[in-house]
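Bench notes, bay 3.
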Amino acid sequence: MARPPRFDTARLLDAAVRLAAESGPAGVTMSAVAASAGAPSGSLYHRFAGRSALLAEVWLRTVEGFQEGYFVALKSSEDPRTAGRAAARHIVAWSRAHPEEAALLLYGARDFGQEDWSDEHRRRAAEGNQRVLTAVRELADTVGAKAPQDIERITLALIDVPLSLVRRHLRGGSPLPPHAEELAEQCTAALLGG
């Protein structure tokens, strides 16, 4: 029976996330990730075709991990307002539990070289974005938000407001306050209306 690889993909991506959180996307190079993981460079080139593939996987794994819980929160209740509040809480709670990944998400896909990604990586990113937009529109429809400004309000409630709370603290280098989840939920509730 073959031995499992000593430097598996998850471990290499974990090292890349740490580097991105510390130094931004520019700090994620093949040699830096290999050094951080204590792996030979060949381990990276065996798993990733090059730096653009590495950057794409770092970004997508982080976003997809975040979105997995977000979609669960959006389906957590039959009541759309309760589900929306849960989604807002998830954004803050996930960021608290995953500070390195949350710091990485302060950047955008473009910062992670999206223009150089493979078609498959771009497809995954587009599908994830479309799922979020569809979920927001479905919740907006459920609460009777039909006009463009109403859909914009729902987007603010479910995405922008909780993210801005997280972003302000992460960019300022301060931990999220203990009341952050509650504050995000209250703001989302106010925007969703009764």
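Next record in the batch:
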Amino acid sequence: MNHSSSMKEAQVSIPELFRCPITLDLLTDPVTLCTGQTYERSSIQKWLSDGNLTCPVTMQKLHDPSIVPNHTLHRLIDRWLQAGHCYDIGPHVAELKHTLESNHYTFKQKLQAIKQVRLLSMELPNTKENSIQSGFFELLLKPLFGEEREFSQQLLEFIEQALCIATELMPLSELGCLDFVIKEDNKFTSFILLLKEGTPMIKLSLCELVKTMAVSSPSMEEAKEISIIRGLINLLDHEQDVDVSGAGVRAISALCLTQSMVENLVKEGAVDSLVAYILRTQAAEKNWLGEATTALELILGADGGKESLMGNSNGIRALVKMVFRVSDHEGSESAVLGLMRLCCESKEAREEAISVGVLTQLLLLLQSQCSGTCKTKARMLLKLLTSM
């Protein structure tokens, strides 16, 4: 056996007893739970701090969440290292990939593998790149969108974990592989169903995928565009979780970069949903308010956009609300631009904007610390309204 092959063998021969069940890496600070299972201290502390009250391996509830240093195992590992052994995390990533690909593993084992991949990617900086090289991004996504029409709790948990790690890997991946979600009808149907019936975390992740698809796959069948739009509008109209509805707003804003999407947003009633969202949303969600206003202003440039907003009894009021806010000016410029679009052509729009207090809002904005560009546009709108 030559030197390189013996090194390779040493790198993959970490005894199971010496590996953390979460990261599959060599234990450096082993601690033991009340269930008798031993983990790397930082890994299990992360697991517990995330609100998990179970043992990751046995899934037993922890009657005592304390952790106890495993000095005996620590000494054994030190002796093993002193004997000259070396190791690498690459094989462990490959093992996890094999678990997810193989039909010989149970659903529970695959779920555990997903959790290990996620924790591993958070704790080891190089693992995300290794995961991409191993094809993890596409591997995680493809099984999620199948022919299921009913989702068990276990399946939803699996999808949730897989989507979380997939969205974390997304910035490093080749986004062209998202095309399969759009092109394969059964997977697209599952995608839309999960957008409606998934857990809040699943919906958040799917909104991130929509944002990415809007850039990487801007062209799709009109029926599929409309399905996505309806799913996102449903989040704005009916979702109780403010994070999810905010993610829906951001996804709609991303869709506004494509002309056909903007036209379909108008047809499907996105204006009414955005107006309602702006009026009911409190200052605590200000970042999403800004994006909602930006989306609304972009939609006004599409055919039927202005008519749709003018047909909403609260449309002008929503834009005026966003002209000036004490805490910040996110969305102010978009609100001013939107009002300019309307007031240049419509006496009715000018009168209504004045009646709901736009002049006061503009004067406050001009006295604030907003950008020079925003102030210039505010002066233009103020001049328009006072001169006419």
